[in-house]
């Protein structure tokens, strides 16, 4: 679907950002617009995800009608606008950054300020009424790499009415192994000596950090070498913060012969009351989304044959601004024997920008 088609499918009200630089934007600084574009343009251009949310809201029109709705981490507040179009009695859109000013403009331009209130702040620091529905794009890279996830859990425990709904309410995190595409060189394709002897300098530490940092990129379905395995199912109705760090064993059975270069993590999620809608997925076999896939470099020679099995344990520890991963794995066939191999990775930085 093209960007033009996305705008045409946005609903009855003219939801869009075409006139944000007009007279109504005089009080918004250039810095705020730059932040909006940096953080949220990629989100708004992710038609798979955004139109998936819109379809789920429309499929649950009876649920949204006359409901009090809370959007956590609203960004441009498109989800709030669509909820209001389905007859919500009140929508509270919460955004911690100054981008909430842009959201307020969109609300005014679509003449929904009598329904939607945009509030700047963290949900943990606000006083809000009880709500019928929480809606949020809380997912991040590796599903969990977003501070909005904790905010949704807090809002659920604090303000969601008994029997209330969360959109989306279920998510699955998967792991598989993949090879390196011939026509897509990556940061690991340069030989190690490029980093360790760079123009007479010793940069071995840079090489180690590169190996231990997950990459965010797109893997083609043809590169996937093994069956997938579910690492974790997240039920947002019951999920606790303590469950965001976990360890789980895995067995990946090989489907095709090649040399494995990556462990690949991806996820899908679904909405309540919309059983006829397919889950939104970041699978390599589906259309690309803003999250792509998370790639964990395998630093050992791993030639796979059909029917081989990679045994291992996946562990993640959640920090305030990072995720630490341990992937312990073993493998053997007629070509190679790896009794036990430990690899550690860290994903860090600004979660919302990943």
UniProtKB/TrEMBL annotation:
One of its GO terms (molecular function) is histone methyltransferase activity. InterPro entries: Arg_MeTrfase (IPR025799), Methyltransf_25 (IPR041698), PRMT_dom (IPR055135), SAM-dependent_MTases_sf (IPR029063). Residues 171-332 form the Protein arginine N-methyltransferase domain. The keyword Repressor does not apply. Its EC number is 2.1.1.319. Residues 69-164 form the Methyltransferase domain. The keyword S-adenosyl-L-methionine applies. It holds the Pfam family Methyltransf_25. It is an enzyme of class 2 (transferase). Coiled coil: none annotated. Keywords: Methyltransferase, S-adenosyl-L-methionine, Transferase. GO terms for cellular component: nucleus. GO terms for biological process: methylation. It catalyses: L-arginyl-[protein] + S-adenosyl-L-methionine = N(omega)-methyl-L-arginyl-[protein] + S-adenosyl-L-homocysteine + H(+). This is type I protein arginine methyltransferase.
């Amino acid at each position: 679907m093209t960007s033009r088609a996305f705008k045409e499918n946005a609903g009855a009200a003219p939801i869009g950002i075409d006139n944000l630089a007009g007279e109504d934007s005089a009080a918004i600084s250039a810095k705020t617009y730059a932040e909006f574009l940096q953080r949220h343009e990629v989100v708004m251009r992710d038609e798979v995800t955004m139109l998936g949310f819109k379809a789920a809201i429309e499929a649950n029109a009876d649920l949204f009608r006359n409901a009090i709705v809370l959007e956590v981490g609203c960004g441009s507040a498109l989800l709030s606008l669509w909820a209001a179009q389905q007859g919500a009695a009140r929508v509270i859109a919460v955004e911690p950054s100054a981008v909430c000013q842009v959201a307020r403009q969109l609300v005014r331009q679509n003449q929904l300020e009598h329904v939607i209130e945009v509030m700047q702040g963290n949900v943990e620091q606000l006083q809000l009424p009880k709500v019928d529905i929480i809606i949020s794009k809380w997912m991040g890279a590796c599903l969990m790499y977003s501070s909005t996830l904790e905010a949704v859990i807090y809002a659920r425990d604090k303000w969601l009415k008994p029997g209330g709904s969360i959109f989306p309410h279920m998510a699955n995190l998967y792991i598989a192994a993949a090879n390196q595409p011939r026509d897509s060189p990556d940061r690991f394709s340069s030989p190690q000596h490029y980093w360790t002897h760079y123009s007479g300098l010793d940069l071995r530490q840079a090489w180690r950090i590169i190996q231990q940092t997950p990459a965010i990129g797109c893997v083609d379905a043809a590169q996937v070498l093994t069956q997938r395995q579910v690492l974790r199912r997240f039920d947002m109705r019951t999920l606790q913060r303590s469950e965001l760090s976990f360890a789980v064993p895995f067995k990946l059975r090989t489907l095709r012969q090649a040399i494995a270069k990556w462990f690949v993590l991806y996820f899908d999620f679904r909405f309540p009351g919309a059983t006829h809608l397919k889950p939104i997925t970041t699978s390599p076999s589906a259309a690309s989304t803003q999250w792509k896939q998370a790639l964990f470099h395998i630093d050992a020679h791993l030639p796979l044959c059909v029917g081989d099995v990679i045994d291992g344990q996946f562990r993640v520890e959640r920090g305030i601004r990072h995720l630490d991963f341990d992937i312990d794995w073993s493998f053997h066939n007629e070509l190679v024997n790896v009794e036990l191999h430990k690899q550690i990775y860290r994903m860090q930085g600004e979660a919302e920008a990943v």
